[in-house]
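Entry for the shared binder. Reason: the reviewer on the internal report wants the predicted structure included alongside the sequence.
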Amino acid sequence: MELVVGASEATMRSVLGKLGGLLAQEYTLIRGVNRDLQYINDELSTMQSFLRVVGGSHGHDDRMKDWMKQIRDITYDIEDCIDDSGHRLHGLRTDMCCYFLVNSVYEVLTWWPRRDLSTKISTLKMRAQQIGERRERYGVNNPDISGSGGGPSTATGFDAADNQDSNLQLVAAKDPVGVEEYMGELEKWVTNENNSSGVLYIVGFGGVGKTTIANALYRKFMDQFDHSAVVTVSQSSDINTVVTNIKNQVMPQSNSHKQQGDDGIPSRIDLEEHFGENSYLVLVDDVWSATTWDQIKKVLPPSRKRSRIIVTTRFQAVATTRRGEGGDHTHKVIPLGVKESEKLFKQAFFESEGRQDIITRSQAVFTTSKRVEGHEDVMVPEEVWKMCGGLPLAIVIMAGYAACNPRKTRDDWLKICSSLFPESGKDHWKDGEKDLTQEEVGRIISYCYNDMPAEIKTCSLYLSIFPKGHKISRKRLTRRWIAEGFVVEKQGLSVEDVAETYFNHLIRRKIIRPVEHNSNLKVKKCIVHDMVLEHIVVKASEENFITVVGGNWLMPPPSSKVRRLSLQGSDYKHAKDTEKMNLSHVRSLTMFGSLNQLPSHSFKIGIVQVLDLEGCTGFRKHHTKQICKMLLLKYLSLRRTDTKQLPKEIGKLKNLETLDIRETNVVELPKTVCHLEQLVNILGGDKRTRRALKLPEELSKRKKMKALRILSGIEILGGSGDFHHLTELRKLVIYKLKTIGDNVSFQDLSSSIEYLGGYSLHTLVIDDESSGFIESLHYLTAPPKFLAALELSGKLVMLPSWIEKLGALNKLTLSVTALRTDNLENLSKLEALISLTFSFRAKERDPQTLSILAGNKLYSKGEIKVPDRGFKSLKLLRFSAPLLPLLSFPKYAMPQLEKLEVRFSMLEGLFGVENLAKLKTVHLTSDNKAGEDMTREIQRELESKVRHTDGEMPRIILHH
């Protein structure tokens, strides 16, 4: 029941803020209502304090749980009352003010909404009184928080400073622990040329590491097949969705509606043209039903070259269905031994500690009293990882818990072990031989999960919005937290920075796992293990926090009002399920799949505050009209939908904070957008194609929208680029600079960059095909000294001299035309730089660009040489160009470099890679068939030369 504390307190904090605003707006109220509002405000403030105290205790009885549920429900209802009435009054007042009507006329016309509000507030006041009286009548006592023993405690304050992620680490693919003996056997099965086709069944119960093993195989061999795809199945999967997911990965431009069979499942013909003549590797994760697998298998055609299918399942029955003629293989995953459990625990622990350098050393320091690099080593006894029964999930989760509780003593840990498994006897779990049941694994997950601070648990509940196996965008998640009011400024940090620390804490806790990173080494996407997600989904459902329809879990329908709705299926059955629900209180709506089944008639559109339709198909013009009636909307994402145009009515969304229209056909914003003075993020354009979003001229002229912090994917037309008034702007991304006639001056833009660069600007991206504006940046009188990320694309040969003065710069992306030895020499002095990319963005390989590349080679005497002892902090280096000269790395070059990526059509060679002492991964990608032999030759050379002093060799990955 601990989860209700964080969820209710976040909602209550939002409600108290709205109540304060309502008290200040006396014109909206009928006489006498102020007293009721003040009473409710005071009562909720006391309840909020009580919830904080409850957050430091555990083991609530049923009476306490029921009383906390009543607090939650009345808080929700108060918020609904305020939002609904505010929406009705807001619309009337806006219209009346347009005609300058006197206040008395306004009061007459709004009499009924205000009267309705008065009645509702009076009823809510009575309910608040009854809740307080009921607590006393039934003896619901204050919790005892003295001596919490070894149980979970959320009383410890959350220190944002400990979760700032100052130790940025690359998201590296790690080999599974403790499976070395049989990984060789599984790899031979994948590469066996004697079998043209086959299915590998990896069987084991939840948390034993099936998916980790399958992913390791998939990552290692995916580039040896013409096509590859990963799809997650589940307890209640829609087969049509599963197969469409495979299709979208191997032929993303295809029409998903063509060639369906009589049962509605895409027919085998769909994939025949792609899989029939080409080799393919498909990973089908977590199949629950033999029938489901049989249907999927029917749609996957045999390849005339070679096909491999990897299936993970908890059930042996799945592995015995439709066996092949000798090509199939079944592998049962067993728990880890004690030594492997210890290795995995310590590896996960040090990751959460941010002590990556210790992971590869002897782990003997773990339980000693020595100090290593300023850290006092913790005293976690071996019983802790033995207790986990060799299950990787339980081990990793417990390691994250241990890393976040460094002050616990040995006795504390032993008490935790005893409390988790009291029925097992004192010594049963100490020997590490205990086989855990699924219920016992869930007990460990629940214990570690409940230990988190209340505000983190509230944010983690939000993960249940996303389907199982979904790669969750960090920015998408944190922006939604902010829109929902779960994050507030603290410890001198902005809401964005606090949201980042919450996200980082979930990584430290191993609740979420990073799977992709940006070039600045920050986590880009994460996933949630299915057993952890199942735990979160159940809790979110119990607390009526989020309702999931059509997802991967068989959840009972909600028994009360739906507050946040996630529609993860769009078939007829799920549409009927949705129609039965009370959706009039939905304030957050997320959809995956098609909009055709959107039950819009069931919504009270006016109170929706978060609308996320990212990636949905079936977007129509009437959807846009409905959206423009959601006057309380704070977060709107239409990313990757069929949206073509935003109507002028978008200007009515006065509360909008985030507008995401990336990868849509919207190329221009209406003038009315400038009325949205609360807007913080405008996200437009298409990063891949560099399609840009045109801004209204009024944005520069009217000097409004001062809350903007991100302006991304835009087009600057002529001289219109005056952003001096956007003093909160942290990120400016320009995809296109367009002149009008002979006007080539962008003085306002240049001046704005110079001004904001010394004020708030942290990220600057400019794509300038003509290169005229980029060249003009040489003459800035003051460098944008606070820039942390800079990207300049165009025909850029000489770098602006002020780049060398950017002491905070950690990410730099430049046109490959700037790839010269002298430029590298200057850049090597940037001590904060951790990511450097030279890229090629020209639409065509125009002669001028190729001439510049040839000139760079001659200027550098045929060899691009990295300076010795430079780039002290660099961890990621990328080159992408049609033609790359010899790249040379002398001894002591780039001492911290972990990842090298090279993409080319022709590469003259890599020399001295063995000198990169910390190198972990080399990615070589050739853009044509002619480059395949070259990449393999480079691979053989690297494998013969590159070996670190500790005997480890970097992972070398080829892409063609």
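Summary line for the report: The CA atoms of residues 229 and 246 lie 6 Å apart.
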